């Protein structure tokens, strides 16, 4: 086969298979107009007449296209659509969807008469229910950019998806500040499990939704039905578990947790803080959160932010200059959500006011976001303030020097970073302050805390630096 014509031969082989599966009229309408354009490794690019055409193909024939591509190209097959709105304009790229909207099978759930108090002699009714997994296919692993900030969480997620409920990570507890990818990773694990084990019942719910559902069940005298519903789940994904603050709803959740865990079902939770830092939770529930694996998702570094921007612009079908992406990645450092929002705003402005996407436009879009971030306390600001206070250089602070004044300044910087920068992990602080590990940072924080309680002069140092930071 001539490599120059490989894309044509591959697409023709796909058409032969698809033609045998779907109605001839639909085949002629929706597949004949598609033109193969190129092929690189396992990625086939095809041109379609319009964006509407692409959307209809994805909605009506996604499963058939996926299975056919895997059969002809292999398991690594990928499809990219090229849409040419105007003949003289360059085509816009749209990667094909890789995940169908997950659907659970219909299950039977025992139900009781609301007025009855079920006992061993009361026979329940049986209700057929199809539980919506509530998973968004856009939140799949393919759309999740991996970096040092989430590497452990992604690795644990893949491990769980291979053997849900039968792995050491049960429950998996993911915690991080806002916009750092907790929900995306949580749903990606659920989607991956549904791909590998279609018959498993997967459910995504937030802590607040669980609490509201429980209160409604109590008001309607349907607590037994509520518990029977949740105890049918094979993989329970609870987002923002910290919102589950009601004592009675926590008790109901405790019973659900115990039942699912004892029966080998998978539990995955997210929170805005570590299990040990959750407030107003029963100790017996907190201890169960710690049974499996707790993973902190940290702020993305520059390389990860840039990779996310490249991935999202590709998904949006927009070709953005590399220098613009690098500018955004360098300016917006807080989290993925703000970075993604800036990119979407940039594309929207360029479309609406018909301007080129360049750095000048990016500066205007990011000015407000970056302005808000500049008032936020950072490790860099802590380092600078500590250096000014003790009249030492930043190089000395970050060095391996064991001089007493340098060591104490470094420990104070670690202590202040830990106590005043939200969502900042011990590992991140250590990496920023001379490449120290989390154990060194923890020791520094303990040392500073002890000295503040026993040494008045030392305490005055810390208080004065805190005032400078504020």
Brief digest:
The chain is an alpha/beta fold.
Question: Which helices and strands, and how do they pair?
Answer:
Blueprint: H1 6-19, H2 24-30, E1 35-40, E2 43-48, H3 51-72, E3 78-83, E4 92-95, E5 106-111, E6 125-130, H4 151-162, E7 172-175, H5 182-196, E8 202-206, H6 207-219, H7 223-230, E9 235-239, H8 247-262, E10 266-271, H9 283-289, E11 293-296, H10 302-315, H11 322-331, H12 336-352, H13 359-374, H14 379-390, H15 394-398, H16 404-420, H17 426-432, H18 438-454, H19 456-469
Parallel strand pairs: 2-3, 7-10, 7-11, 8-9, 9-10
Antiparallel strand pairs: 1-2, 3-4, 5-6
Number of strands: 11
- CATH topology descriptor of the largest domain: Rossmann fold
Helix fraction by DSSP (H/I, runs of at least 4) = 40-55%
Sketch the major β-sheet: 5 strands, parallel
- Which regions are unreliable across 5 or more consecutive residues at pLDDT < 50? 112-126
Tally of individual helices? 19
Rounded to an integer in angstroms, the radius of gyration calculated over CA atoms is 27 Å
**What CATH first level of the largest domain would be assigned?**
Alpha Beta
């Amino acid at each position: 086969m001539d490599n120059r014509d490989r894309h044509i031969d591959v697409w023709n082989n796909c058409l032969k298979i698809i033609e045998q599966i779907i109605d001839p009229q639909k085949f002629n309408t929706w597949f004949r107009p598609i033109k193969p354009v190129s092929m690189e490794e396992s990625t086939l690019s095809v041109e379609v007449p319009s964006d509407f055409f692409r959307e209809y193909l994805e909605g009506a024939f996604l499963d058939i296209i996926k299975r056919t591509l895997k059969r002809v190209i292999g398991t690594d097959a990928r499809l990219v659509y090229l849409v040419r709105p105007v003949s003289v304009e360059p085509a816009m790229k749209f990667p094909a969807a890789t995940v169908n909207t997950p659907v659970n099978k219909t299950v039977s759930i025992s139900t009781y008469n609301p007025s009855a108090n079920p006992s061993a002699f009361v026979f329940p009714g049986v209700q057929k229910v199809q539980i919506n997994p509530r998973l968004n296919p856009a939140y799949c692993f393919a759309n999740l950019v991996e970096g040092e900030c989430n590497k452990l969480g992604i690795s644990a997620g893949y491990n769980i998806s291979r053997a849900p409920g039968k792995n050491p990570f049960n429950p998996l507890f993911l915690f991080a500040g806002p916009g750092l990818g907790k929900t995306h990773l949580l749903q990606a694990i659920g989607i991956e499990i549904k791909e590998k084990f279609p018959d498993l019942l997967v459910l995504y719910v937030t802590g607040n939704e669980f609490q509201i559902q429980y209160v409604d069940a109590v008001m309607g005298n349907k607590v037994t039905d509520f518990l029977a519903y949740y105890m049918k789940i094979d993989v329970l994904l609870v987002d923002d578990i910290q919102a589950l603050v009601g004592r009675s709803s926590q008790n109901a959740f405790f019973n659900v947790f115990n039942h699912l865990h004892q029966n080998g079902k998978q539990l995955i939770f997210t929170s805005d803080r570590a299990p040990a830092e959750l407030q107003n939770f029963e100790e017996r529930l907190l201890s169960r959160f710690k049974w499996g694996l707790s993973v902190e998702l940290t702020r993305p570094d520059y390389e990860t932010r840039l990779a996310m921007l490249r991935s999202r612009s590709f998904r949006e079908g927009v070709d953005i200059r590399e220098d613009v992406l690098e500018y955004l990645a360098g300016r917006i450092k807080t989290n993925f959500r703000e970075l993604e929002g800036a990119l979407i705003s940039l594309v929207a402005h360029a479309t609406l006011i018909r301007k080129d996407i360049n750095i000048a436009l990016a500066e205007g879009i990011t000015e407000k976001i970056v302005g808000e971030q500049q008032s936020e306390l950072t490790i860099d600001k802590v380092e600078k303030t500590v250096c000014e206070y003790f009249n030492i250089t930043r190089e000395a602070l970050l060095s391996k020097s064991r001089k007493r004044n340098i060591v104490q300044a470094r420990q104070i910087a670690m202590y202040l970073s830990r106590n005043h920068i939200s969502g900042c992990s011990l590992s991140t602080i250590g990496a920023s302050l001379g490449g120290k590990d989390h154990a060194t940072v923890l020791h520094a924080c303990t040392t500073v805390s002890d000295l503040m309680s026993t040494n008045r002069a030392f305490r005055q140092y810390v208080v004065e630096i805190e005032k400078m930071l504020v």
